[in-house]
Design a protein that fits this description.
The complex is a heterodimer of chains A (about 450) and B (about 90). Chain A folds into three domains: about 150 residues, 2Fe-2S iron-sulphur cluster binding domain, sarcosine oxidase, alpha subunit, N-terminal domain (Ubiquitin-like (UB roll)), CATH 3.10.20; about 130 residues, 3-Layer(bba) Sandwich (FAD/NAD(P)-binding domain); about 130 residues, FAD/NAD(P)-binding domain (3-Layer(bba) Sandwich). In chain A, about 20% of the residues lie in helices and about 35% in strands. In chain A, a hairpin with a 4-residue loop joins strand 26 and strand 27. In chain A, helix 5 packs parallel to helix 6 and helix 8 packs parallel to helix 9. The longest helix of chain A has 12 residues. Chain B has one domain: 2-Layer Sandwich (Folate-binding fold), CATH 3.30.2270. The chains are: A alpha/beta (about 450), B mainly beta (about 90). The structure holds zinc ion. The site of zinc ion (ZN) has 7 residues of chain B, from loops. The site of zinc ion has 7 residues of chain B, from loops.
C-alpha cells in the first residue's frame, strides 16, 4: 500500500486493522472500512477493466452503486465465485480475491484492445456480421470471442450458502439513510409511526457524514458533527428500526417493496461459516419516503473515459471518508460549485491541485471565494478539448470558450495531471419513484428530471 | 402485488387469491342449440379491458370462497368488492 496516498487519521477507516487482499493475483493491503475501490486507489491502481466493445482501459469512476466501470469477479471457487460485483460497493475483508472482467489475457495487455485502434473500421454489429462466415470457421472465432468479450463467469457448482426471507409490515418505510432520510425517519417515528429506515451502506449519514467544511453548518456546527449526534439519538427512538447494508431492489404496487440485506459479504471466509448470507425483505408499508439523494453527472469531452477520470464527488468521498488520495496532482473540471467542495477537501489533506477548469464566466459564491483564498489556479470560461494517457490519464488539453460558448478560441494549454475530477451537476435518484408509477417533469432551473405530483 | 379485501376474511395479499377472469358472463341456457362459433365465444372471448374491469376472484389459500372485484387494470386500483349474486355496486 502506497503510504503517500493515505492520509493519517480518519474515523471511518480502522488503520489499526490491516487486511490483505488480491487483485488479479497481486497481493495488496488495505484497511478495515475500505471498499475494494478505495483500497485499490490507495495502492495507486486505477485501471480495473476494459470496455465491452473496444476494450478501452477503464478505471474506477465513482464511489457507490452508480459505478459503471469497476465491475469485478470476486473469488474463483466454482461454487462461491460472484460475478459483476462493483468494487465501490464491496467492503474489504481479509483474504478477498478479485479479478478484472472483460479482458483477456489480462487487464494491462488485452487482445481486444486492438479493436480500439481499428475502431473506425468496426461499425455497430461488427462481431455478429463478420464472424458469421465461413460457417466452418466459427469454432475458431468462438474461442477468441468468448475469451475476449463477455462479462463475468457464473459459478458452475451449486451454491452452498444459506439465504433467508422475511415479511415486514410498517407504517412508514424510509429508503436512504442520508440527512433527509434520517430526519424523515426521526419525525415519522416520533409521531408514533412504526418506521423502517434502510440504507445500502454500512453506516448511516450519506454524503453529509463526511462534509466537514465551514461553508456547511447547522446550528453553528459543521454538518458532519451535527448529523453524527442525530444518528446517535435516533438509535434510541422506539418505533424506529434501522437496517444498514440493505438495498431496496423493487417497488411494486400497493407499496410492496423488496430489499436485500447483506449479512456476511463483508466478512472473511472464516467468519462466514454457518451464517445466513443474505436476507430478502418483503415489505408492505402504508407510506414510503424515498430519500435516495442524487448522483453527480459527468461532463462530455474528447477521451473522457480514461482511467484516472472520476466524478469530483467520488474524489471527495475517497479523501474525506476513506482517507485515500485518488491522485497526487489532481485537476477538476466543472460547470457548477460542487467541485469547489472537493478542492477544499483535497487542500485540507495536502493534495496538490493542478487547477480548476470552470466553463462558467465567474461564480461569486462563498465556497468559490474560499477556494480562491488557497491560491488555486482557476481557468474560468475554459473547457477540456482532449486528454492523453492510455492506462492512466497523464495530460489534459484545455482551451478558452468563445463568448457565446459555442466554440473554442485562443491557444491550447497542456496541463500534466494524474487524476481528473469532473462535475456536471446533479441528477436526483428518481428511479424508485418512477418504478412505483410516478411521472417525471423537467425542471429547467437546475436541468433535472424531477418528480411530478399528480 | 396488490391487496384484496376478501368480503369474508378482510385484507389479504394477492398471493392468497387466484383470479377467475371476467365476471358476469351468463352461461347460455341451452348449450346444445348453439353453433360452434357461439359456444367458442362464450368459452373463450373476453373483453380484456384496459381500465375498469369486473372480475371474479377466489380466496384459494384462505376461505376458498368466490366473490367479485371491480379493478382498474391500468393501475390495479380496486374500486369495489362484492359477494357472488350481489348487484355490482357501480354501474357496469
Ligand atoms: Zn377469504
Amino acid at each position: 500500500m502506497s503510504k503517500e496516498l493515505r492520509i493519517n487519521s480518519n474515523k471511518f477507516i480502522d488503520q489499526t486493522t490491516r487486511l490483505s487482499f488480491k487483485f488479479n493475483g497481486e497481493k495488496l493491503y488495505g484497511y478495515k472500512g475500505d471498499t475494494l475501490a478505495s483500497a485499490l486507489l490507495a495502492n495507486n491502481i486505477h485501471l480495473v477493466g476494459r470496455s465491452f466493445k473496444y476494450h478501452r482501459p477503464r478505471g474506477i469512476m465513482t464511489c457507490g452503486s452508480e459505478e459503471p466501470n469497476a465491475i469485478v469477479q470476486i473469488g474463483n471457487d466454482p461454487s462461491l465465485t460472484d460475478p459483476n460485483v462493483r468494487a465501490t460497493e464491496i467492503e474489504l475483508y481479509e483474504g478477498l480475491e478479485a479479478f478484472s472482467q472483460n479482458c483477456w489475457p489480462n487487464v494491462k495487455f488485452d487482445i481486444g484492445g486492438i479493436n480500439n485502434l481499428l475502431s473506425p473500421l468496426l461499425p455497430a454489429g461488427f462481431y455478429y456480421k463478420t464472424f458469421m462466415w465461413p460457417a466452418s470457421f466459427w469454432e475458431k472465432y468462438e474461442f477468441f470471442i468468448r475469451h475476449s468479450a463477455g462479462l463475468g463467469k457464473s459459478p458452475t457448482k451449486p451454491d452452498p450458502d444459506i439465504y433467508d426471507h422475511k415479511y415486514y409490515h410498517c407504517d412508514v418505510l424510509v429508503v436512504g439513510g442520508g440527512i433527509s432520510g434520517i430526519m424523515a425517519a426521526k419525525l415519522s417515528a416520533e409521531n408514533n409511526n412504526e418506521t423502517l429506515l434502510l440504507d445500502d451502506k454500512n453506516i448511516l449519514g450519506g454524503a453529509t457524514i463526511y462534509q466537514n467544511n465551514d461553508c456547511f453548518q447547522i446550528d453553528s456546527t459543521h454538518t458532519n458533527y451535527w448529523l453524527e449526534k442525530e444518528i446517535k439519538n435516533i438509535k434510541n427512538i422506539k418505533n424506529l428500526t434501522i437496517k444498514t447494508r440493505t438495498s431496496l431492489a423493487a417497488y411494486h404496487g400497493y407499496n410492496y417493496l423488496l430489499a436485500k440485506e447483506n449479512l456476511t459479504d463483508h466478512l472473511s471466509p472464516d467468519e462466514r461459516k454457518g451464517k445466513i448470507r443474505q436476507r430478502l425483505w418483503k415489505i408492505r408499508a402504508k407510506k414510503v419516503i424515498i430519500a435516495t439523494g442524487s448522483i453527480e453527472r459527468p461532463l462530455i469531452f474528447n477521451n473522457n473515459d480514461r482511467p484516472g477520470i472520476m466524478l469530483s464527488s467520488a474524489i471527495k468521498k475517497f479523501i474525506d471518508f476513506y482517507g485515500v488520495k485518488a491522485g497526487k496532482e489532481i485537476t477538476l473540471f466543472t460547470n457548477n460549485d460542487s467541485a469547489y467542495e472537493t478542492a477544499i477537501s483535497l487542500k485540507k489533506s495536502g493534495v496538490n491541485i493542478v487547477s480548476i477548469i470552470d466553463i462558467r464566466d465567474k461564480s461569486s459564491s462563498k465556497i468559490v471565494k474560499e477556494v480562491e483564498k488557497h491560491n488555486i489556479k482557476i481557468y474560468w470560461k475554459h473547457t477540456i478539448v482532449n486528454t492523453e494517457g492510455y492506462r492512466r490519464i497523464s495530460f489534459i488539453e484545455i482551451m478558452q470558450l468563445s463568448d457565446d460558448g459555442s466554440g473554442v478560441i485562443g491557444k491550447k494549454i497542456k496541463l500534466k495531471t494524474d487524476c481528473l475530477g469532473i462535475s456536471g451537476g446533479w441528477t436526483p435518484m428518481v428511479h424508485l419513484f418512477t418504478q412505483s408509477g410516478g411521472k417525471l417533469k423537467f425542471r429547467s432551473d437546475d436541468n433535472v428530471f424531477f418528480t411530478r405530483q399528480e | 402485488m396488490f391487496i384484496i379485501n376478501c368480503p369474508y376474511c378482510g385484507e389479504r395479499d394477492q398471493t392468497e387469491f387466484s383470479s377467475g377472469g371476467e365476471a358476469h358472463i351468463v352461461r347460455p341456457k341451452q348449450p346444445t342449440e348453439l353453433s360452434d362459433d357461439e359456444w367458442a365465444k362464450f368459452l373463450f372471448m373476453r373483453k380484456n379491458i384496459k381500465g375498469i374491469q369486473f372480475e371474479r376472484w377466489n380466496h384459494s389459500h384462505g376461505c376458498r370462497k368466490w366473490f367479485n372485484v371491480v379493478r382498474d387494470t391500468s393501475n390495479d386500483k380496486i374500486h369495489a368488492v362484492y359477494k357472488m349474486g350481489e348487484k355490482p355496486p357501480v354501474n357496469k
